[in-house]
Amino acid sequence: MSTARKYLISGLAILISSVVFLVPFTFILFMALKDRKEASLRGFTLPTTYHFWDNLVDVIQTRNYMLLTAFLNSVVLTVTSVTLLVILGAMAGYVLQRHPSKWTGLVNFFVLSGLIIPPAVVPTIWLLQGIGMFKTMSGMIFIEVAYGLSFSVLLFRAFVATIPRELDEAAIIDGAGPLRLFFEIILPLLKPVVSAVIVVQSVAIFNDFTNPLYYLPGNKNVTVQLTLYNFQSQFSTSYNLLFMNILLITIPPLVIFLFFQRQIVAGLTAGAVKG
Amino acid sequence: MKRIEATPKTPFKHWMASSYPVWFFLPAGIIFFVFFLFPTIASLFFSLTRWTLFDAVFIGLDNYSQFFKEPFLFQGLRNSLIYGVVTSGLKVVLGMMLGVFLTSQIVARDYLRSVVFFPVLVSTVGVGITFTALMHPTQGFINEALELFGVKGPAWLTNPRFALLSVALVDVWKGVGLATVIYIAGINAIPIEYYEASEIDGANSVQQFWNITLPLARPATFTVIILSLIGGLRSFDLIWSMTRGGPGFTTDVIASVIYKQYQAGFYGLSTAGNVVLIVLVAAIIVPLSAFLNKREVEL
Prior knowledge:
Largest sheet of chain B: 2 strands, antiparallel
Strand content of chain A: under 5%
Oligomer: heterodimer
Helix content of chain B: 55-70%
Helix content of chain A: over 70%
Distance between the termini of chain A: 28 Å
Structural class of chain B: mainly alpha
CATH class of the largest domain in chain B: Mainly Alpha
CATH topology of the largest domain in chain B: MetI-like fold
Number of helices of chain B: 14
Number of strands of chain B: 2
Number of helices of chain A: 12
Distance between the termini of chain B: 31 Å
CATH superfamily of the largest domain in chain B: MetI-like
């Protein structure tokens, strides 16, 4: 490719991608900065007057500081679920890879079914009510763990296969029991997958809308994605606040993206390329 | 299999002391069984009942016959299929084009990759609300921009003929970054020697694409097809945040039918819809991935 042509094509690509992919984000930003009247026009224009601080304070105070409660709930949900997904997923993936038995086929079947099958919603609500976990954070955490386990187990199993068995054997000869072997020898070696699982799952759980909608209703339990939903009707006349809300809940994924882009891509493409 | 461990005294001790103890499965297995598998199995029974969550009256296949007879329920099934196929097809084509482009020698490659990928990580509901505003027939940016070129844009979300496709386009906008990174990984895994050899034989870049990139990136294509079909058939949050299934029932998919029937208190009917969704996804994905995997082995 000649240099001139290369720059021409690249310039064109930058232009098109900016229009297609950056306009919506710029739009969110502009809308979040406008006053109520201007935002109601929904135009893609620079704000004539800037109201960042007013809108921020307004949206935080709405409905008795609902957004702060939501951030707290979402953080608790995400951190706890992801911790469990890492530890339990690594334990299961490790034994699944190291100790094949007559059950392995069945377990593999369940792991794949967990990836493919959509969950049965109302029976799950019935179950949660039966064990007193409906509308509770602990119930929601178990749900997120159950739905995310398949992905974690698959990633961990694939990575454990690359750790030489001789390492285990050396540790066993040195007298390490199963718990020490796993937590002190194997788990530290799994670091690259651990970070991939953490990043991918925390984005997924933080952005989860459907499951909290079903299993965690109620203003006290609100998560960040549901604030948008709750505010959508209430803010039908104040688009500036609705978009300020979108802006605020887009920041955590943006931060994760800036710091962990490599892990995310590694996690999402793992297993995709066998050939 | 060679394993080094103390001679077991009893089966239980063996079970506890093995270096790869089976009980490592238990916490994950119990959570998976209780919160995922058990409700899935229970749904088969409850879909055959009139159900109030407290008691269930067995009514046979009535819920299913209602689901397939009522046009507004059945339309959900049709729309799910259309939505799944359209989003999956577009993600394959666009993802591959972007993948090829973003692995070639261009300026600002990393920037372009980031820009394409970022929407994958953003809140779906936020994207839905944003595009609902951008797709407004008169005030929205998309139609205003089209007007500059003299094109009169359609009423994207309020015209029943376009609404489902408009939502599908937004889904592609949000998800094409994932398809692209999968293709980038797949294309980067192709040995450079193939391209060098073909260049010596005088192949141009179009021939290289059809004869090297396309066949050797096949695992990436399979992954993109399977992943986006699973996501597309189950899709709920984007559709719900943009149209709530409207106008009328024209953008209802199975997942939104399930939610609407749940809200209305028809738990048995909702669960029947859920079973239909489970069967639909399994009936498409399982044979398809078996077929694709078989072709991969033959390659």
